[in-house]
Amino acid sequence: MHEQDPWIETVSQGADYRDWKSVYGRVPLDFFVANVLKYWPVWFQSFRVPQVIIASVFSMRLGPRGRSVAVPMTQGDHVAPFKVVSAQSDSHWIGKAEDKNLVAHVVILASKQDMRTRFDVGTFITFRRLFGRLYFQMVRPFHHLVLSTAMAAAVRNGRAL
User: What SS3 string covers 107-151?
Assistant: First the structure.
């Protein structure tokens, strides 16, 4: 899909898992990123306890969730579990989270199309150890549900802009 972009090529190289989701909205990129990262609905909180237990069994770090997020756009800055790899306010935001079991990149691309913006969100996971692969296989169905819902909520929350 976007593999011709040099940043995408870099983060996708060697990735064991790749996924893209898209949504259209009328919000700026930093607003979209902030709302995706802070997404924490009541129904999702019930998943946190099993996630913490599974993560502790596999010695994985979980970032804080559900807090207000100011999105840094400077390479090397941190937000939630992610370190900013690259960001440009009108086109993209790329974050990286890693621990001893896996490396995860989140790529958010924004492209203006008429009066709306198309947001493409890519997830790239590279497993370092078997525990990373096992952990991700357990949370993968929830990843799809939560990311899709977070993206929809991010553009819905910005309709008044």
Answer: EEEEEEECCEEEEEEEEEEEECCHHHHHHHHHHHHHHHHHHHHHH
pLDDT, tens only, 77-88 = 998 789 999 999
Task: Dig out the tokens for 51 from the structure.
Answer: 């996630």
pLDDT in tens, 79-117: 878 999 999 988 999 999 999 999 999 999 999 988 899
**pLDDT 10s digits, 10-56:** 888 899 999 999 999 999 999 999 999 888 777 666 666 666 666 67
Mean pLDDT over each residue of the chain, to the nearest integer: 84
* Nearest one of 143, 149, 145 to 125, comparing CA atoms: 143
Asked whether the beta carbons of 98 and 123 are under 8 A apart, the reply is: no
> Cα dist. 39→35, 43, 113, 117, 147 in Å?
6, 11, 25, 20, 9
- Here the tokens at position 67 are 């807090």
Burial class (CB in 10 A: 0-12, 13-18, 19+), 92: buried
Structure token pair of residue 47: 């998943």
Angle (CA) 68-49-33 rounded to 5° is 30
Measured between alpha carbons, how far is 92 from 96 in angstroms, rounded to an integer?
14
